[in-house]
Task: structure prediction
Amino acid sequence: MTTESNAMAASTKMYISWVLFTLSAAVSVYGMKQAGSPRSRSQQQSQQSQQSALQKALREGTSRDAGERVCTVDEHNRPTAEGHVRSEVRLQNLWHRATYIIVRHVTEEDAANPIRPEHEHILVQRRSMSKDYCPGKLDPAPGGVVGFGESYQLNAEHELAEEMGISSSNNDNTMKRLFTFPYQDERVQCWGELYEVTYRGPLDALTIQEEEVEEVMRMSLSDIQKVTQQTPDAWTPDGRHALTLYLQHRHDRIVKRRLLSGYSSGNLDAYTVRPKPKAIFFDCDDCLYFDGWKTANQLTKKIDEWCVKHGLPEGEAYQLYLRHGTALRGLLAEGHMEHCEDAIDKYLQDVHDLPIHTLLSRDEELRNMIESMDPSIPKYVFTASVSDHADRCLKALGIRDLFADIIIDVKACGLVTKHSKEAFQAAMKIANVDDPESCVFLDDSVNNIRAAREVGWRSILVGRVGRDCGTPISSDDAEHEIDRIHELPTIFPE
Result:
């Protein structure tokens, strides 16, 4: 490690320790509600005094750049006719445009010795105390308010050059736009556009604008995540949100996640945080296990034998499936079976009467993978077969105890086809989930993946060869496609 690298690392560690010590002390003091703490009262009075002074300066138009005309917009990011002056934007919390810039710092040593993504470094600013918004706060995504008639791109380039002396026109400092996003809280409402720039120069070559920036420090992404979680009030709230979005977007790029329209992270012109999964739904046959379709073929043979036994010509079971979505629905619709619970149960029992424990065996790799998943997220089996069949499959694989007690089967879904909207709505109701995007679905059927997309579920196609066609299959409705279920951690590490 070079002398400069050693110095930067030591400086970063010292800074992080200082932040955690001083801010944790401040939080503990501010958290005391009882009287008798002079330091607490003093700090609170100082903060209130600072805020009062800032509000007064904004009202009087004497704050920094108070008269600057800003690009104000509506809640859909459509610009207003004439914009507003900055003081009005702050006092009235008007929607406006702003830029956010993640400045990656890559040294010669970093370039020569690639590091893990979470250990990459970015430049963090401490805002000047003269700022009209979040003075003295740390900002992981510095930028600026877009002026009236100014573009996002020009503003980002201007702010970067003005505040830190970094020129994006320099080939070494490449800048690219990543996405646009809405942000609002009780103090600010804006449509931000986030850029990523790579700075390869030394820290001492930066030219800091003292009126805007108090200091610039180099911190790893992992350290920033730790510090922002422990001392959130020390950071600009919109900057923290921008960083969260950046990390999500960056992670998706690394795992090559397909961005799909209609989802939180699918629109780069209105990018938002993706909801945490509330339930994960696994298909059973040919998804949780793959045996070369041996079990599936035996099921098909059983169904055909049942139909022949009850007077239908050979091959008619498949035709019923094509006409009605499942052979059972066809049998009921065309009058080949009495529409009563006993008859339906007897049919389902007969066609699923397979020696599962001779067909499937315990899968320790699969068990370890499922055990490593977030235990707070319930896991369901969502199958087009019956619960008894799925239950026996799970027990044979050695994973029954890792799933919710309820197996969502064809009967739980009212006998509708799995690739119908009603089946997915029924599954959500059983799992007690009301947000479709918080449902993650794994299945080997392109039709089922398409249906999941239509109701707003996030999906992963498992298996890239079709059973019916024997040729490669793909789905534009899936976030990912994998060959086998065991590959899930490689594309869904979170």
Summary: The first strand starts at residue 69 and ends at 70. The chain has 17 helices and 14 strands. The radius of gyration is 29 Å. The first helix runs from residue 3 to 30.
